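ok here's DUF2271 domain-containing protein:
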Amino acid sequence: MRLIIVGLLCLVSGFSIAATPSQLKLTVTLPQLEVAEYHAPYVAVWIEDEKRQPTHVALWYDVAMANGEGQDWLKDLRQWWRRGGRGLSMPVDGLTGATRGPGQHIISTQLTDALATLAPGKYHLVVEAAREVGGREVLQLPLELPLAAQQLPLEVTGQHELSAIRLHF
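and the structure:
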């Protein structure tokens, strides 16, 4: 039932791809860093239009800290914070989750749901990572909706806090 609804939403919004919409994935690769004190990064994923209006996709932060103290550090995701993060009431159902360690992490359902709400046009898929006692990095993938299968995969490589982000089937 959910697949049919998502497919219908994609059709209505102009989001078209050759494969089933639920097959679209964003892989976020976090590097294995050789540092004395490692903390898993906070990561925000959003899609912004040409006017920089965000459609939030995912937010990973320390949700288990006592008294919600993990939320205090969300402002370190500076671009995300300025693009609308500060206006959200945490945690956001279906958006927030725990931080993740090094490796590849796939976002699928949240991405499909976010894309289904967008009208045809030019966008940027943005991923920002910030780490305590570490750095901060922002990567962007330009998109044009409706998204055609021949446009994929799209990938950009990071240098510090993000190894790569890749949009693919």
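+1. The two ends are 21 Å apart (CA to CA).
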